[in-house]
Amino acid sequence: MKIKAIIHSAEERGYWAEVPALPGCITEGETMEEVMTNLKDAIEGWLEVANESHSTTSTN
């Protein structure tokens, strides 16, 4: 699955990233490597919560 993310330079230092297709899915990191790792974790967490929420509403 490919998900588009936008990575921005932070004003203070480092980077922050957002995933437009996943509202509220944002993260940050001191280095590009760190923001990429955090972005992967943020996307996985967002999808996991969305899946659990969908499963809960489907059974009610």
From TrEMBL:
Q: Where is the HicB-like antitoxin of toxin-antitoxin system domain?
A: 5-55
User: Which Pfam family is one of this chain's hits?
Assistant: HicB_lk_antitox
* Protein's recorded name: HicB-like antitoxin of toxin-antitoxin system domain-containing protein
